[in-house]
Design goal:
heterodimer, A: mainly alpha, MetI-like fold, 11 helices, B: mainly alpha
């Protein structure tokens, strides 16, 4: 553990040193890559201003609403489609088609219909984030051993209890891994909307920094998006292992 | 024969129904945003075939070039990092951070450094789409059974043969899973890069139709982009099945 940590720390410091060096010598030209210390101080100045926190708030709200909306659609629909053989087979081709088409292509259309505000970003994020959870939930329901459900039925466990105590626990590992992927996708989409359509948020500040040639701030904001990504990953990974601590596949690791 | 027929019916019934509903519900539409499907298809026919060479080919060429670099880099680096524990420990924090950056967030930098060029698009795809392949190749390489390696040692298999005949095949299911996500990243990046800075490509066609408020073209472009994404992922699925056929699992 400590060896791991120190090795990692050494590489990170070396990496930042290399960045500083490349920045000082302007190795890429046009100050496209400013020194790391300049980036850090630009970021420090940005963080002190209210504008940054407003933008971060917009991104966070758009991300959260996109993910929550997608969960509300995908999980019930996935359970419903997974539970019926015919339902599953008839909808499969349509779902497979829709989930493989790149969601960003819908952005210009969404902008014309709903403008560039929160509503448009959330709708596109929902559209994009639905698919991983939907397919995962369907797969989760389909893989439940029929014997498990039959046993529950034989013991005359009520449908309500069967849903909460048998079906949902069996599907939950699939749902949580779908949610994890969707959380990242929702952030990707929020950033793309802000960057391309100028919806309020970190991506918009990023585009402004690029257009204004403020490369130090631009790199600082790129780092911020990375921090957001790391936060989302960590929070959802931790929540997943907490929620599923009872599950054999997760309990083993502890 | 009837089984086959039922299977085909199951596959096409819902898409057919949806398109039919779209066709009739939009037929008399006077809404600017939702033109009749007939008008959209007419725009699509107008766009074809010059549109393919003008808009689709440049996008696909940049996409494949960037993707090829990302995959080659991801697989080779991933095999090394997955087999050498110290290297993985050393690079893991940086990799974990880099892969958390939404790929599109890197675009402003690449546009600034390289301008609206093909090089810019290829570079941003190479850098932005490498992470899923890299991470799952590391997982795949780390998970190779030690017994398999012992056998190659006993047989004194040459290094090259060991890599291409044993290590890579053993890690291939995970590598391919990562490559699939990388492909999705690459498609997003090529489209977004064309929307932000370009004068050609399918992303440019869509965004310029939007700016000229040409809704039928916008819808047509969106449909073409959707079909392109679908075709690419089907092609990937086909290749994946071929490559993993020897495993007998898929």
């Amino acid at each position: 553990m400590t060896r791991r940590f120190s090795l990692g720390a050494v590489t990170v410091v070396t990496f930042l040193g290399l960045w500083e060096l490349l920045g000082r010598t302007d190795a890429l030209g046009d100050h496209a890559l400013p020194p790391f210390l300049a980036t850090a101080s630009a970021l420090g100045r940005a963080v002190a201003a209210a504008e940054f926190w407003m933008a971060a708030g917009h991104t966070a709200v758009q991300w959260a609403l996109g993910l929550a909306g997608a969960m509300l659609v995908a999980i019930p629909l996935g359970l419903f489609l997974g539970l019926g053989r015919l339902r599953h087979r008839v909808t499969r081709s349509t779902i497979d088609f829709l989930r493989t088409i790149p969601p960003v292509m819908l952005l210009p259309l969404f902008v014309l219909v709903w403008g560039t505000g929160l509503k448009m970003v959330v709708l596109l994020a929902i559209y994009a984030a639905v698919w991983p959870m939907l397919t995962q939930t369907i797969t989760g329901v389909r893989q439940i051993d029929q014997a498990t459900m039959d046993t529950a039925a034989i013991f005359k466990i009520s449908a309500w209890r069967r849903f909460w105590r048998v079906l949902l626990p069996a599907v939950s590992p699939f749902i949580t891994s779908g949610v994890r992927v969707s959380a990242v996708i929702s952030l990707f989409i929020a950033i793309v909307c802000e960057l391309v359509a100028g919806s309020p948020g970190i991506g918009q500040l990023l585009a402004q920094a690029q257009l204004g040639g403020d490369t130090a701030l631009m790199w600082g904001l790129i780092l911020v998006t990375g921090v957001l990504g790391v936060l989302i990953n960590t929070v959802f990974k931790t929540a997943e292992s907490q929620l599923l601590a009872w599950h054999p596949a997760y309990a083993k690791g502890q | 024969m009837t089984r086959r027929l039922i299977l085909v019916a199951e596959l096409v019934a819902l898409p057919f129904l949806l398109v039919t509903v779209w066709w009739f519900s939009s037929a008399g539409s006077s809404s600017v945003f939702f033109p009749p499907l007939q008008t959209i298809l007419a725009a699509l026919v107008d766009w074809f075939p010059e549109g393919v060479t003008r808009d689709v080919v440049p996008s696909v060429v940049n996409l494949l070039a960037g993707y090829a670099i990302a995959v080659t880099a991801g697989v080779s680096a991933g095999m090394v990092l997955g087999r050498v524990r110290a290297l993985e420990d050393a690079f893991s924090p940086i990799i974990q951070f880099m892969r958390s950056i939404p790929p599109a967030a890197l675009l402003p930098f690449f546009i600034l450094a390289m301008g609206p060029t093909s090089t810019m698009r290829i570079s941003v795809i190479a850098v932005g789409a490498v992470w899923p392949t890299l991470l799952s190749t590391i997982d795949g390489a780390r998970g190779i059974e030690p017994a398999l390696l012992d056998v190659t040692k006993i047989y004194k298999t040459s290094r090259l043969r060991r890599i291409f005949k044993v290590l890579l095949p053993a890690a291939s299911p995970l590598i391919l899973a990562g490559m699939k996500t990388s492909l999705a990243f690459a498609i997003i990046l090529v489209v977004v890069s064309e929307m932000l800075a370009s004068t050609a490509g399918i992303g440019y066609f869509i965004i310029s139709s939007q700016q000229y408020f040409n809704l039928p073209d916008l819808w047509a472009g969106t449909i073409v982009m959707g079909l392109l994404g679908y075709l690419l992922s089907e092609l990937f699925f086909f290749v994946e099945r071929r490559l993993l056929a020897w495993k007998g699992e898929i």
